[in-house]
Design brief:
2 domains, seven-stranded mixed beta sheet, ph1033 like fold, single chain, 17% helix, alpha+beta, 10 strands, Rubrerythrin, domain 2, binds zinc ion
């Protein structure tokens, strides 16, 4: 079991969270999760500058996943249902070492997201985070190399033994979480200098912090089932009636800031 000695020394990991967060038990299993890496990054952080689809997860600056974005609802749902509480992150840098392991979250809490249970939307918060100097997946010892190099696209469930071995391996490497968080802030400043927005596709001038979290909790409105993708990449807001462009479903309308108000334009007849 991995419950003992959660490392809560990182300012991004939350040693305790109250309502609306619920504690998540640890049944030992976990997930490998692949994210897009920002091509401008010195440390392999998420692709903040991805055109028309600025990435907010993994949101290492708050230690959350799925609080701000609609990424990987299936994995988030399974983590909450199965107490599969460790996520190891993998990414590929352009011109880099191929797929690399960058670290992990140990999830300590969950809450309902803006899109509701009907859309399997659960937000996750870590009680331990460790991001490391990236390790090429092909250079991992077996039995870790096989699952980490296997050709899956987004997420892959892993068993207790792999979780334990991967976590021990990450824990043997120096903690670089603060460097990764600084890199997120640097790329946000770069984007803001260029366009006036850290996240142009969100209409967000600033980055994300725990001060923003409450806006992304479920507010008890009736939520409909909404597809996670739009063929046209255009979304209609039921609140302000505007149409916005985004690669992925956003939890919050970038124009009026209402949550759970967007549906794919092609579904509007
Ligand atoms: Zn709107």
């Amino acid at each position: 079991m991995l419950m003992e000695d959660p490392k809560t020394d990182q300012n991004t990991a939350q040693p305790s969270l109250g309502a609306p967060w619920h504690p998540l038990m640890d049944a030992g299993r976990g997930y490998l999760a692949v994210y897009f890496c920002d091509p401008l990054a010195r440390w392999p952080v998420r692709e903040i500058t991805r055109p028309r689809d600025n990435k907010s997860d993994p949101n290492i600056e708050t230690g959350t996943f799925g609080l701000f974005s609609t990424c990987e609802p299936g994995m988030r749902n399974r983590i909450v249902q199965d107490n599969a509480s460790t996520i190891f992150f993998l990414t590929t840098r352009k011109g880099g070492q191929g797929r690399v392991l960058t670290g992990y979250y140990h999830i300590g809490w969950w809450t309902h997201g803006t899109q509701g249970v009907v859309n399997r939307d659960f937000a996750l918060a870590a009680d331990a985070i460790r991001l490391i100097d990236p390790i090429a997946a092909v250079e991992l010892p077996e039995p870790l190399a096989t699952p980490c190099t296997s050709p899956f696209r987004t997420v892959k469930p892993i068993g207790e033994d792999i979780v334990r071995a991967l976590r021990e391996l990450c824990d043997r490497h120096p903690d670089r979480t603060n460097e990764y968080v600084d890199e997120v802030r640097r790329i946000e400043r770069f984007a803001r200098a260029r366009s006036g927005f850290s996240y142009p596709s969100w209409g967000r001038r600033q980055g994300f912090s725990w001060d923003d979290a409450a806006d992304f909790y479920q507010h008890g409105d009736e939520v409909r089932k909404v597809p996670n993708s739009s063929r046209t990449k255009k979304w209609h807001c039921s609140n302000c009636d505007y149409v916005i462009t985004s690669g992925a479903l956003l939890k919050q309308c970038p124009l009026c800031n209402k949550t759970a108000s967007l549906t794919p334009l092609e579904a509007q007849k």
